[in-house]
């Protein structure tokens, strides 16, 4: 039988665990026997998750845009949650879908601060401990938007291209240190992502998922967990996944009337 790693060996640090992929991944790991540190900004959501998942789950309010807060949180982690060997750098968001010339500049800034700088901060704060303990696994959450452009996605897609390239570069950077790096790149998945993008507008948020079957958070959690339980000599570099109902558009040729 093919030997995978028993998740009971894992202490998993997750950003963006208050909803969507992060929450589903926290549940999936605890179910499999891992210890999970679930973080995000919404304290109530974290309290609910803690009540649901019990003693194998430790929670903490954390904004990934605050490097010093991440460093302090990690330094203060109580045993047995203090020896993290899997990091799921998942926190992120898209804001708006306006054309670039009309976008609210603070939306672009928030996406860069969260998806780019927050990811950098998470990795920089967690990596030294894993190297010192002899190994680990960093899973970043990118997007198909990091490969395929779409109108209104200028900065969101660019942040996810950054995530992909950071993950690839990190892989060569940690060569020989027994650190694995995987970028998970989902397409259309139904979570609160769209509600956040459209700032609480339910009807706009529902439109991308209308009359179709998107992926769900459990689909993504399954791939995240799978990439981490493969034998230690295997590194999955990238996992690009789409709903079966989602495919590629042809090139968009502008024509004069
Ligand atoms: N859903 C999709 O179609 C899709 C496709 C490809 C990639 N993604 C990516 O997948 C990741 C998870 O998205 P999701 O679909 O699960 O969306 P979601 O349900 O909206 O979850 C996003 C998570 O990120 C957290 N977050 C946002 N800003 C944060 C900050 N400054 N500090 C800490 N946590 C923060 C949120 O928690 P708080 O608000 O409580 O802080 C929340 O837990 C994101 O990186 C997203 O870009 C999503």
TrEMBL record:
Keyword presence, Oxidoreductase: yes
Matching InterPro entries: KR_dom, NAD(P)-bd_dom_sf, Sc_DH/Rdtase_CS, SDR_fam
GO molecular function, one term: oxidoreductase activity, acting on the CH-OH group of donors, NAD or NADP as acceptor
Domain annotation Ketoreductase: ranges: 10-187
Keywords: Oxidoreductase
Family: Belongs to the short-chain dehydrogenases/reductases (SDR) family.
The protein's name: NAD(P)-dependent oxidoreductase
Organism for this UniProt entry: Devosia pacifica
